[in-house]
Amino acid sequence: MSDPIIKIENMNKWFGDFQVLKNIDLSVEKNKKIVVCGPSGSGKSTLIRCINRLEEHQEGTIIVDGTELSENTKNIEAIRAEVGMVFQQFNLFPHLSILDNCTLAPIWVKKMPKAKAEELALEHLERVQISDQAQKFPGQLSGGQQQRCAIARALCMEPKIMLFDEPTSALDPEMIKEVLDAMVNLAKAGMTMIVVTHEMGFAKEVADEVIFMDEGMIVERAETKTFFANPKSDRTKLFLSQIL
Amino acid sequence: MKNISFFQIQSKSPLTNMYMGSTLLSIAIFDVFVSSFLSVNITSFLPQNISTFLPLIIGFIGLGILRMEYTGIRLLDKVNKNINTNNFNAFLTLLIIFVVIKATPPALSWMILDANISGDSKEACTGTGACWTYIKVWFRRFMYGMYPNELHWRINSAFILVIALGFVGYFFKENLKKYLALYYVVIYPIIAFLIIYYLISGGSFGLVWVETGAWGGLSLTFIVSFFCLIFCFPLGMVLALGRRSNLPAVRYISVGYIEFWRGVPLITVLFMSSVMFPMFLPEDFFMDKLVRVIIAITLFEAAYCAEVIRGGLQALPRGQYDAAKSLGMGYWKMHIFVILPQALKLVIPGIANTFLALVKDTPLIFVVGLAEIAGMLALAKTNPKWLGFAMEGYIFAAIIFWIICYAMSKYSYNLENKYKTER
Q1: Domain containing B349 — which CATH number?
Q2: What is the pLDDT of residues B395-414, one digit of tens each?
Q3: Closest Cα in chain B, distance from residue A92 (Å)
Q4: Which pTM value belongs to this model?
Q5: At residue B362, what are phi and psi to the nearest 5 degrees?
């Protein structure tokens, strides 16, 4: 197997006195799809926010694509540019049109010519099926459309890894499917993905492995089939019995 | 619950109420109108105190009857809904109407009917009203201060040039749009300074030197406000960002700066700038008083701007920062393209507020001997030939300031609407 693209060793993180992440060891290989699940407050979101250093960890090492993340990391922006992220609340830029949302970072961070960036953006918007909304503003779109736009925006940076932080939790049930479809397509195209979600259907369909977290620890990590068929720990069994 | 009016007049048709109510109200207003405009008291047969309060009582009853029933007449129902909802509101409405009617005739006669504008000396003002001749004679002084009369074209043309350059941004081609901020923050102030320096100050290109002590009047108000506005905004922006910085040194310097300037009165700052500041400078170093004053006001107002802008920065959800960072944007790119455009849009009303206050603070420069429009008034009213016209002068200045400030606030509303996007 190839070297892991994300390697986390012995990582600890505190918010004040409260330890949110305890001894996290995790390595993710290229092109793998990992689903992270667990009860709320278990540190799932914090874990993936640490991967592109939106949160800083206090102990242990995180290596993303060969670069260790630490206070001394000079080119944190370069790493973030390679790690796309989709948020629960979409976080589109409301003052820019959908197209400008998608082209902003390619033009200013990757120094791409404007015409090329727009072409790329339209391609990715087409991929998530909202290219016809390109001239509108985020406020004029439905939640599902906004979230798909957020996916397209992240894809425009042509990242090596995509992080999803509960992408469907703020959506109406009707709109969840369209976003999940976009994510399934992305998974099939071979993207490395780490997805925090409660959508177990999605996990079963695309995930290679599932990680179950509770109280800041990784309780169980298993192949998707094994995870759902024979979970090892009692905590996982309890969680699955409640969620399924 | 029944209608809580204490005049329980029962009637069959709502129109009867309407006719009765409006008749009573009209009588009340007519009474006040006649007594204040024509000095005829139609209720003089009554004891004096009753006669004084009678219109109020009649009008009050009239309004009470008017709102007793829904008539279906649009205008009337609208009036009832807005200014005649209960006894207290009706009373206030009447009081305001009467005060306005009472105040109109004296104001009107003083300002227009009995006023003088002809002639060019104090003797022309014979009436009991305002003496607008005073304003007319002194008009050039109020506009240009002690600037030599024959050189006023230099001020005018400098202003026209500066204003014209201000509009240049609208005509920028698409590919130059990205330099717009650079133009307005850096290039425009420099060009404006050069224009004002060479044209109004003179001293080269064959123009006679006019020292800044001679500048004054409205043109000085404009010059001071203009430079303070364009410099204090970027400075405030930097301070606001500095106050939220992660770097302790930057943060403490910004906090210290803001708290220092917000803690001292402007008038002391102006005194310091003109009296104390030169003492700290090397002897051969000279900085014009006007420049010192502009710098002082700029530094002072920047602290206020900074706090307003910081309010906007804090109103943005954290997700915007996260999203920008996750796309690989560094601190400056994140702020220039994502954070500041949204934050500044949010603070347009607050910034407009600060700017209006700044314009109205400029008369304070009189304390260091610079006479902008209000300062010129103060000088003019002590002129022995023209004693006793302070009122006209201050009304004139008030009108001018009101026009400037109203224009600014209108403009800020326009900006607000222009940049309004749905969230």
Answers
A1: 1.10.3720.10
A2: 888 999 999 999 999 998 98
A3: 7
A4: 0.82
A5: -60, -30
